[in-house]
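Subject: sequence -> structure tokens, single chain

Hey, anyone have a minute? Need the predicted structure for the following. Not urgent.
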Amino acid sequence: MDPQEQISQIYVETRDDVFRYLLAMGVPPAAAQDLAQESFLRLYEKLAEGEPVREPRAWLFRVAHNLGLNARARERTFEPFDESVHAALPERDAGVEAGLIGRERMARVERAVASLSPQQKQVLELRAGGLRYREIAATLDWALPWRSQLLKNWRLEAIVRARSRFPLDVAGSENLLGLGFDDAPRPDRVAGVPLWIANGNAPGGRRLNPAAFTLPSARVQGNLGRGAIRGFGFGQADLALQREFTLAEASRMEVSLGAYSALNRPAFGDPVGYLNSPFFGVSSTALNSMLGMGTPYSGLAPALQAGGARCLQIAARVRF
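Reply:
Had a minute. Here:
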């Protein structure tokens, strides 16, 4: 949307609200019309120059507020709000208001408004114009309490990853030379013997049962298939808490606090699958080390893999 279309839309939606607000400040009607036009003209010039205006309504009311203060200072007078001028303005939804608000209730509202201080009336007018409390504070140059600014507008993002149990191979022995093409003997599965046995000292609380496997007597492969056993599953939640702070009208700072493996649940790699190993059936490494060691052809370093211990990251980025 180009500046002319944008300012036209804002003008149609906001002109009466700006005019009402200037009247409520005690600016005479003729001067209020001039100041309202001046406010929209300044907004148009700013948009035409390509300068970003994050909240055009708040910016517009702030300019009108300052112009109204300058006009009152020049006149050295403060005229009371003219109800007849307000009544002459077109109502936003006169039919609904006439149906919902009776004369008696409206009279009570007017008496309550009359008892407010000038600042309270300004806040009420701005709120009736559709401005949020933060925009009202910016229009009147009021500083919000630091706690309310610090605790609002945070954004929480989450990535949840889950995998089923990894397939596991069991072999008779490990090739000492580490040759990938050298076959390792597969054992036979002993029927009726449980694959897993509970062990409170083992990672994950269980280990493979050595009695569930036996090597064939002849030099043939056993009946245990490839990937026939399932190891440990995996689940992890990564959380990030982010917020953007306004440093100046065109400068922003984004602060982010990330927690990888936020719940810090242990994730273990596959148990050792070689029957001749003293560690057979027990997981000897964390999952992130199993997935990669950072060396060539082995994947990312463990610190960058899923399945490790909790890792916290704090980042700040300034845009201007």
